[in-house]
Amino acid sequence: MQRSQAQTRFEISTKDQLSVTDITAQVHAAVPDDLTGIITVFVEHTTAAIAVNEAEKRLQGDLETALNELIDDTGWRHNEIDGNADSHIRAMLIGASATIPIEDGELATGTWQSVLLIECDGPRTRTVSVTATPAVNSHT
Amino acid sequence: MQRSQAQTRFEISTKDQLSVTDITAQVHAAVPDDLTGIITVFVEHTTAAIAVNEAEKRLQGDLETALNELIDDTGWRHNEIDGNADSHIRAMLIGASATIPIEDGELATGTWQSVLLIECDGPRTRTVSVTATPAVNSHT
Amino acid sequence: MQRSQAQTRFEISTKDQLSVTDITAQVHAAVPDDLTGIITVFVEHTTAAIAVNEAEKRLQGDLETALNELIDDTGWRHNEIDGNADSHIRAMLIGASATIPIEDGELATGTWQSVLLIECDGPRTRTVSVTATPAVNSHT
Q1: Any chain B CB within 8 A of the CB of C138?
Q2: Residues of C in Cβ contact (< 8 Å) with B138
Q3: How do the domains of chain A map onto residue ranges?
Q4: Per-residue b or e along B57-92, where b marks 16 or more CB atoms closer than 10 Å to that residue's CB
Q5: How many Å apart are CA C129 and CA A128, to the nearest integer?
């Protein structure tokens, strides 16, 4: 049996400027076997985000399209610095983390839920941390 | 006094395709009496979301209107599968969970804050989990 | 060494109707010195939000512009009550809290990440709480 770990990190390489990557397997591998509680999945960057939704290929493309259409890619003042204001704003709309309930070492998610890394300024290598927190009376 | 419970679940039936339901009472009932810490309110579906905001009827309608206007309901590739790509995208913008501070068994929220289930593909029966996590030095 | 505290609060005065304020220093001051785990940063209001992103002045203005453009400021039914439906909707898109990993008393964030208070209906004085939760096996 794997030892409980407070905090682990993994890296993900993304392939396109705007892309959705299923990281459920990597997140699951970071969950202590005996944990009942929550995990916080956190991306250590300002132009990427974490969501919990369905990892269906066409939907992943649809989310990319939607984020592109919601936020223009020109006219921003931050672009005087590094030309990626749109990526920051898209990432803020989704959020840098997801907090997910865990039951007996398994993600307590619904049938269609996966953990998704939303890349908004790729391709890049991104660092994701998973912090495991026990629930009350869980005797972990 | 109620025993502390690590993790509880309840079900909510929603009435319309896009609708906002106040679930504060159900969430509060799932909070251990003596908890100081946080709870994670998590909806186990990919076309519904959790928000913390005001449970005012006209505002609830306004949020429905805003989500409708932000995301079109046609032109998505995922619709080849089950016709609800817009619902997924709206749910991702709000998020599948809320993490809320708890003080002595009560939601440590502001005067106007309620916990809201945002239904994006109803009417449906939705499962919501509440996981209770103690703060440091809280002797729960 | 500072004693671990389960839950602390601080106040922030904002300057404009829509504005972004870097609150990283205040959040950091509320983190117990020896904590490894997570903190939940929560704003106790329905027209303000918390994000984790870059605290660059031009980007802060860009986010204000983007939230203004995404959500119209007229035509809402809640405005019959207090004229700020747009502020509520903008706040819901960002979210009332952020959950952030902590390692040995420090925010385990990336180089460019700061904690931001997104004011959507200012200028106002806002109350923010920070709740500290230990990770498994962290012996806090």
Answers
A1: no
A2: 6
A3: 7-134
A4: eebbbbbbbbbeebbeeeebebbeeeebbbbbbbbb
A5: 25
CATH number of A7-134: 2.60.120.460
Q: C35 to chain B: nearest residue by CA?
A: B136
Burial of B3 (0-12, 13-18, 19+ CB in 10 A): exposed
Paired sense of beta strands B97-103 and B106-107, if any = antiparallel
Question: What tens digit of pLDDT does each residue of A4-48 get?
Answer: 578 999 999 999 999 999 999 999 999 999 999 999 999 999 999
Q: Which of A44, A81, A99 sits opposite C99 (nearest CB)?
A: A99
pLDDT at residue C5, rounded to an integer: 75
Q: What is the ipTM of this complex?
A: 0.95
Return the number of CB contacts < 8 Å for B and C: 110
CATH code reported for the domain at B7-133: 2.60.120.460
Report chain A residues whose CB lies below 8 A from the CB of B80: 58
> Helix, strand, or coil here: C91?
helix
pLDDT, tens digit, for every residue of C4-41?
678 999 999 999 999 999 999 999 999 999 999 999 99
